[in-house]
Design goal:
This protein has 4 helices and 12 strands. By secondary structure, the protein is an alpha+beta fold. Helices cover about 20% and strands about 35% of the residues. An 8-stranded antiparallel sheet has the order 1-8-9-10-11-7-6-5, with helices on both faces. Strands 2-3-4-12 form a 4-stranded antiparallel sheet. The radius of gyration is 20 Å and the shape is globular.
Length: about 260
């Protein structure tokens, strides 16, 4: 869909927790699109309204404006365009919006409970990003995300639980809007043991889950935007086409204050 720069791949050995301070998540204010009706509404407009009905309530509640008729997404995809916070992306039209997640927008694949996406935006009062390259190289950004996952999001205080992560890829590309984006994939695994004092995976540990987290990082409005996709590692390659379409479509843009 977009022009891509040369990828830089890094396969690291599994690492465990080390200190890191991750950036915060902000739940953004909601907006509503006013419904418009006209005696002369065309059959095409009526049909588009019917197709968008299943997700309309969830989209309004999350502050995301549904796709307009002139912004036609690829066949089988739906466009999400948040005019308030300045980002947009496409996703498979059968993915469902979840309004109780606390995220700005959260969508999940109804065929796979572990496959989902959300958008995270840093607070405007605590970030002054000018470009995603302020994070360093794609590898630097990937290391930052990996540490965030290990020490914050997926850290477990349960005895007998071990979490591991490795960087699958870290890429840089320039999209058709002229902005630089980082595409990152990280594999996370969780092991559990009935022996709470086992020290390694070899000591009676069993795999609990295995997931690949894909992220697109971009900057606009002095804020860091992150589109994050989660999928079971076993589905990562089979679903790579749809995942790539979603990631390549993500755009963040300046908005009026």
């Amino acid at each position: 869909m977009n022009a891509r720069a040369q990828s830089k791949f890094s396969s690291g050995s599994a690492r465990r927790v080390r200190p890191f301070a991750g950036h915060g998540r902000i739940a953004c204010a909601a907006t509503q699109r006013q419904a418009q009706s006209s005696p002369e509404q065309s059959r095409r407009e009526a049909l588009l309204a019917m197709l968008s009905a299943p997700l309309l309530a969830a989209q309004l509640g999350s502050g995301v404006a549904p796709a307009m008729a002139f912004q036609a997404p690829p066949a089988g995809y739906r466009l999400f365009n948040d005019k308030l916070d300045g980002y947009s992306f496409v996703c498979p039209e059968n993915w469902l919006a979840v309004t109780s997640s606390g995220n700005d927008i959260f969508l999940r694949n109804p065929r796979s409970v572990e496959e989902n996406l959300f958008v995270d935006i840093t607070s405007p009062s605590s970030s002054r990003y000018k470009s995603v390259e302020d994070l360093g190289s794609p590898q630097d950004a990937a290391n930052r995300l990996l540490d965030q996952y290990l020490t914050k999001e997926f850290m477990s205080t349960r005895l007998g639980i071990a979490r591991y992560g490795e960087i699958v890829s870290a890429n840089k590309r320039t999209a058709d809007d002229g902005k630089v984006y980082y595409d990152i994939a990280i594999r996370m695994t969780s092991y559990g043991s009935r022996n709470a004092y086992a020290a390694t995976r070899a000591e009676d540990y069993q795999l609990e889950w295995d997931r690949t987290l894909s992220a697109v990082l971009g900057v606009a409005n002095n804020r860091l935007y992150t589109l994050r996709l989660q999928t079971p590692t076993g589905q990562y390659k089979p679903d790579s086409g749809a995942l790539r379409d979603i990631m390549d479509s993500f755009r963040c843009r300046e908005v009026e204050a």
